[in-house]
Amino acid sequence: xxxxxxxxxxxxxxxxxFEGGWNLGGKGPSDADMMTNGTHTTPRQITRTWEEGLCxxxxxxxxxxxxxxxxxxxxxxxxxxxxxxxxxxxxxxxNGDDLVPNEEGLAFYDQVFDELHEQGIEPLVTISHYELPWxxxxxxxxxxxxxxxxxxxxxCETIFTRYRDKVKYWLTFNEINCGTMPLGGYLGxxxxxxxxxxxLNQVDDPQLRFQxxxxxxxxxxxxxxxxxxxxxxxxxxxxxxxxxxYPYSCNPADVIACQQKMDEGNYYCGDVQVRGEYPHFAQRxxxxxxxxxxxxxxxxxxxxxxxxxxxxxxxxMSNAVSTxxxxxxxxxxxxxxxxxxxxxxxxxxWQIDPDGLRWxxxxxxxxxxxxxxVVENGLGAFDTVEDDGAIHDSYRxxxxxMHIEAMKKAVEVDGVDLMGYTPWGCIDxxxxxxxxxGKRYGFVYVDADDEGNxxxxxxxxxxxxxxxxxxxxxxxxxx
Length: 479
Hints:
Belongs to the glycosyl hydrolase 1 family. The chain has 479 residues and is of the alpha/beta class. The chain is built from 14 helices and 16 strands. Helix 13 (394-412) links the parallel strand 13 (372-376) and strand 14.
């Protein structure tokens, strides 16, 4: 058997993209609730108030808020061992800086976790996944303020204590490295600079971004230490949007440019959270953007003593890096690059590269030597519902099969310690980058369109039955 007997097969979602019920149960608005829908050609807009006539897809998402028991049963039917779910911070602390948590929100997740356990599913909880309470952006400009460290730790203490016997696996921040990019200023850090409205073309302030990222590092490290105090059996991971990059050519300029892009985009954050210190190239990054980091007394000690237990990451595609501006470009998760002539691409232009996942697993395990987990991977595609209700998504099965085969080689041949796999959007959800429901990833179809029209009923795609077989065979039967 290639995968260990206790391998964690499952799926992944995010509360802001999946849950809905945005103003129910005492929940406050989040940054995600202030974003309109878009398309793969028209960017989402960030509005400071809800504007008449615009659609805010995170408000309804996939309506998990009302359908969690049904969804847990579907996951149980597939045989999930783990379900990556996030908690809406503003469902627990509606403003983010409240002194007392919202009991109705806490009880909601109690119910969800109980339903998952009834199905034999272990929750893997992302503590903060692109849904900062809106009040923290309005009053403090998000993570640009050091005050958020204490608010976050209070939030963590509340959920660690409440769910100490229901949740074992935790991730502190989703794709924390998006803070190294302009796109992450609002998405991951809740920083809203004057004049920003277009989500894809934000008014950028690198000083605020990197300072906010430092505050997240400190908050994460303190949360790790707190978690181990509350329950020594807790396993706490980081979560990185891994952007695999290759030099476009053997031109040394391309090789150096690729190395520096990997350093800044991937390893800047991973090194802090796994190794407990800023990497040797950090000063080069700060100098590049004119950043002068304000490091308070005790921060570096916190980073050193609050390292994570495992490393989790998203992997969708790879890019090539070139110093030639005339080359054709392609899109991607958070960041694009030069088009690789050896790869095909998805409907959204993301290059499909399963071998890159094997390469990534080896790169990460060689660098960090702690257990790894692939917590996002999948194919966003247009699905067609046939007249009989069937959804024949062989393209999704092909994509996942190739990536599981790559993981198998990394484990069996290369000796990588891989603990689990949770494909993204296991039940269809709203896209973070475009706000579309039509960009579907799931094994389960949700009857809703980009404007929230539909019954929201669930139906099984062909990939549902295929993935059930994969889990039953522990990854051996991929036909």
